[in-house]
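Postdoc handover notes: sequence design on the structure in folder B. Input tokens:
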């Protein structure tokens, strides 16, 4: 089995070190390990050109027009059975480089889109999707912060896993971590996270792994969270009193029961729509295809062309000399 460690922190800093501690544990379990600090790669921002969407839904594969080191990283990630991510906490959430990688993954690496694209390619005799992109994978996240301002990073982490439908084994936040290398409990926790990740990755290698998400994930070791489906603690509260889980998209009602918040929802109605489920991804994929088709038709009208020209001609972007 292969386990890849990824760090989005300072070279040889706390994130690198805790990621390597988890990798040491994975190696103890017999894993072949590799480590990458993503800051040493040339990874450009997603421009939202949607070229990958057009390729996916026309049977032409899922390539990206941006040429940098991301494809090298993607190959590394999809060759591994398990991934250990360590990232610093910036402004309560994951750092920009993590978001850039996450942005470049979706929609071209979305499991639902890849399954739809595979079927389209088969029907049209197009370019097949690399089978390794549909392989089951387990992932563990370590968020390392210098204070207790860390209310979003675990949801950011889980959103990245949601795109590819990777199974999360653990998702932990380590606050007040400026001297974390001298914190024996934190180091022991990182080591245990590596052991747990490798144990799940071993099941993938053996063919005994049962993929599951949220409450259906028998290998999950992380915090329970408030959402009973996906374990998220992040919710969007609407004026009408309903709440939407920021991760799985389930809608329900938040209640205070015996001093604890409880999120209640209609499982029969919302679980098929969950954003980390294949059925939910297919619904989303159908919505995207309808919207793309309608948008293409609308933007070909003379009125749309005139409106676009008005804003293009009004003012141009400033840039340094």
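Designed sequence:
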């Amino acid at each position: 089995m292969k386990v890849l460690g990824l760090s989005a922190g300072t070279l040889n800093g706390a994130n690198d070190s805790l990621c390597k501690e988890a990798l040491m544990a994975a190696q103890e379990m017999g894993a072949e390990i590799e480590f990458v600090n993503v800051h040493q790669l040339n990874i450009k921002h997603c421009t939202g050109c949607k070229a990958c969407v057009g390729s996916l839904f026309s049977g032409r594969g899922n390539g990206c027009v941006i040429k940098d080191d991301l494809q090298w990283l993607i190959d590394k990630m999809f060759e591994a059975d398990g991934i250990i991510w360590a990232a610093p906490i910036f402004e309560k959430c994951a750092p920009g480089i993590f978001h850039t990688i996450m942005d470049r993954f979706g929609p071209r690496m979305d499991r639902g889109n890849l399954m739809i694209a595979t079927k389209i390619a088969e029907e049209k005799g197009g370019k097949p999707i690399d089978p390794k992109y549909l392989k089951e994978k387990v992932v563990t996240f370590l968020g390392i912060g210098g204070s207790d301002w860390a209310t979003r990073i675990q949801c950011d982490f889980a959103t990245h896993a949601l795109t590819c439908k990777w199974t999360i084994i653990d998702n932990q936040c380590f606050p007040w971590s400026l001297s974390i290398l001298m914190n024996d409990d934190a180091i022991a926790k990182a080591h245990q996270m590596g052991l747990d990740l490798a144990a799940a990755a071993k099941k993938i290698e053996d063919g005994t792994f049962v993929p599951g998400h949220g409450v259906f994930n028998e290998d999950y070791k992380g915090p329970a969270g408030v959402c009973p489906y996906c374990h998220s603690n992040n919710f969007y509260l609407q004026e009408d009193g309903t709440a939407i889980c920021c991760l799985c998209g389930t809608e329900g009602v938040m209640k205070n029961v015996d001093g604890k918040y409880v999120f209640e929802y209609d499982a029969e109605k919302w679980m098929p729509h969950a954003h980390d489920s294949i059925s939910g991804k297919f619904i989303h994929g159908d919505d995207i295809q309808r919207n793309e088709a309608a948008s293409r038709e609308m933007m070909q009208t003379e009125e749309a062309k005139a409106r676009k020209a008005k804003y293009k001609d009004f003012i141009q972007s400033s840039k340094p000399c």
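Context for whoever picks this up: The first strand starts at residue 2 and ends at 7. Don't rerun without checking with the PI first.
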